[in-house]
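Exercise 7b. Backbone tokens:
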């Protein structure tokens, strides 16, 4: 199961799909993430028209686990701006 997940995750390329996103989008990144460096967040943000990029003062690839408070704050702030 892990092999199938890894193959799907690491060999998929959905970059062309990003320009088709038409909903308000929050792109979250951490200051330090060994899986997705900050260049990835910048790329995703640039590729999704009208997206908002927030760099969290957190480390790791899963900030909802490593820094749930700052993650929640960023999401809540983003959603409040949509009203």
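Sequence design result:
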């Amino acid at each position: 199961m892990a092999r199938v997940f890894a193959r799907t995750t690491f060999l998929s390329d959905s970059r062309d799909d990003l320009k088709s996103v038409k909903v308000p989008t929050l792109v979250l990144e951490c200051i330090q993430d060994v899986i997705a460096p900050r260049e990835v967040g910048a790329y995703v943000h640039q590729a999704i028209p009208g997206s908002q990029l927030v760099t969290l003062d957190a480390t790791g690839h899963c900030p909802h686990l490593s820094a749930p408070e700052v993650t929640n704050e960023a999401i809540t702030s983003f959603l409040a701006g949509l009203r």
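Instructor comment: The chain has one domain: 15-80. The helical segments are 2-11, 38-47, 63-66, 68-80.
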